[in-house]
From TrEMBL:
Record-linked SMART domains: AAA, REC
InterPro entries cross-referenced by the UniProt entry: AAA+_ATPase, AAA_lid_NorR, CheY-like_superfamily, Homeodomain-like_sf, HTH_Fis, P-loop_NTPase, Sig_transdc_resp-reg_receiver, Sigma_54_int
Residues in Response regulatory domain copies: 4-118
4-aspartylphosphate modified-residue sites: 53
Organism listed in the record: Qipengyuania qiaonensis
Subcellular location: Cytoplasm
Domain Sigma-54 factor interaction, first and last residues per copy: 137-365
Role noted for this protein: Member of the two-component regulatory system NtrB/NtrC, which controls expression of the nitrogen-regulated (ntr) genes in response to nitrogen limitation. Phosphorylated NtrC binds directly to DNA and stimulates the formation of open promoter-sigma54-RNA polymerase complexes.
Protein name per UniProt: DNA-binding transcriptional regulator NtrC
Keyword hit for Ribonucleoprotein: no
């Protein structure tokens, strides 16, 4: 269904031009010329986005935004103004307007802003499972605006998307937004995390298996591909996919058909693929750990999420958003002072938005006052949580705790995920020390050489890359 736009503009020629441009982009536009008409329309309809002029015959379109909010508390509003004064710009940014466009403006930029506004608004309506269906992607930083723009480009098609970015930057949330905003919203959204599934089970997890396909396959199993039929399949941590599964995935993407493990028959599937990774796949291609042809199949539309430290200007809005979420989950309702936000902005956030979210929830729970200030932040979130535990044992405990908190491994995956997270740097350390000599590394670790070789392959560690004489 087309997104509906309300345009409040008393200059007929401008109204006509904007209406036409938006209609060409597939929006459903209702135009009116006065505040009175605007309020009447808002009382009877729901609009996805409103565009409004400032000076209208019966009042000020900006000053009356609070009236609009009574009808549409969260609808993005784009302000258009011929009064290019700093005052109007400031008033627009003080109000909760989504965007401000001084006239004359570039029509393409305006239609793009409308598409972004549509993408950024909470998509609460139309879902029956209540709360967590809203997908507000918070962020007005240039970096996030770029992300919104990319999302709007894939909304109306089924192009394959590859989302990159460090852990916790919001890759899954973006994948869900793409799903929610697109035409496949009526179909399923199935997420599979390649890193959380033991490698020998991955193919049967993705493609299913027939009864008796391997020891333990006591009954037939439908894989995630088939479950996602008609919808979207989110392949998370795609860089952790073992070679054979990569080949099978490539074949499925090329043919649009899958074969269950141990099955003969090819089954057609209609699935949109959104993949994500926190690794840099390019060097993995060079090392032969990721198939180049698969990479090109997946990387049709790349969306990169920058780390949180590169978009500090989003931290204030994110903190407010998470405080709201925390209150919604029954934690005390709190606000953060601007000093508190500044302290939070100065932090490194290696776990990105996920770490910030956990920190805000902790603050909501533990802060002394309703308003969280700088000192509560410093008390509740000591900056050097690991360094404080100087002795090695506590260092491990604290690191594990922090790791669990930031990575939030899914139910039933903790043991394998933690072990992999621990083994990887350990093996890398051993290979570093032995310059990639697996025999010596195995001896140093005190494990069998074949065990080491197997685990290195499973963890995608290339021993030759540690050989400095290469
Ligand atoms: N821009 C954002 N606005 C609001 N919430 C966000 C945003 N980005 C991330 N989050 C929240 O932060 C948490 C982590 O996000 P998400 O799981 O999407 O990260 P990810 O990049 O997929 O992480 P990983 O690579 O570890 O799987 C989630 O709770 C998500 O809702």
């Amino acid at each position: 269904m087309a997104h509906s736009i309300l345009l409040v503009e008393d200059d007929k020629s401008i109204a006509t031009v904007i209406t036409q441009a938006l209609r060409e982009d597939g929006f459903d536009v209702t135009a009116c010329e006065s505040l009175a008409r605007r309020d009447a329309l808002l009382a009877g309809h729901t609009f996805d986005v409103m565009l409004t002029d400032v000076i209208l015959s019966d009042g000020d379109g900006l000053a009356s935004i609070s009236t609009v909010r009574e009808h549409a508390p969260r609808m993005p509003i784009i302000v258009l103004s011929a009064q290019n004064t700093l005052d109007t710009a400031v008033r627009a940014s003080d109000s909760d307007a989504f965007e401000y466009f001084p006239k004359p403006f570039d029509l393409d930029e305006l239609t793009q802003a409308v598409a972004q506004a549509v993408a950024s608004r909470p998509v609460a309506e139309g879902s029956d499972d209540g709360e967590e269906s809203a997908l507000p992607l918070i962020g007005r930083s240039p970096a996030m605006q770029g992300v919104f723009r990319m999302i709007t480009r894939v909304m109306r098609n089924d192009l394959t998307v590859l989302i990159t970015g460090e852990s916790g930057t919001g890759k899954e949330l973006v994948a869900e937004a793409i799903y929610q905003l697109g035409a496949r919203k009526t179909g399923p959204f199935i997420a599979v995390n390649m890193a959380a599934i033991p490698h020998d089970l991955l193919e049967s997890e993705l493609f299913g298996h027939e009864r008796g396909a391997f020891t333990g396959a006591v009954s037939q199993q439908i894989g995630k591909f088939e479950q996602a039929n008609g919808g979207t399949l989110f392949l998370d941590e795609i860089g952790d996919m073992p070679a054979e599964a990569q080949t099978r995935l490539l074949r499925a993407l090329q043919s649009g058909r899958i074969r269950r493990v141990g099955g003969r028959q090819e089954i057609g599937v209609d699935v949109r693929i959104v993949a994500a990774t926190n690794r840099d796949l390019v060097p993995m291609i060079a090392d032969g750990r990721f198939r180049e042809d698969l990479y090109y199949r997946l990387n049709v539309v790349p969306i990169h999420l920058p780390p949180l430290r590169e978009r500090q200007e989003d931290i204030g809005a994110l903190v407010r958003h998470f405080l709201g979420q925390a209150a919604g989950e029954g934690l005390p309702a709190r606000q953060a002072s601007s000093d508190a936000i500044d302290v939070l902005k100065a932090r490194e956030w290696r776990g990105n938005v996920r770490e910030l979210r956990n920190a805000v929830f902790r603050l909501a729970l533990m802060a002394r006052d309703d308003v969280i200030d700088e000192s509560s932040v410093n008390d509740v979130l000591p900056a050097t949580r690991i360094a404080e535990h100087a002795d090695a044992k506590h260092g491990f405990d604290a690191a594990l705790e922090l790791w669990i908190e930031t990575m939030q491994p899914g139910e039933g995956t903790l043991y394998h995920a933690a072990l992999a997270a621990f083994e990887k740097p350990l093996f890398e350390h051993a290979l570093e020390r032995t310059e990639g000599n697996q025999l010596r590394a195995a001896r140093m670790l005190g494990i069998n050489r074949n065990t080491l070789r197997k685990r290195l392959a499973e963890l995608d560690i290339a021993p030759e890359s540690f050989n400095r004489r290469r």
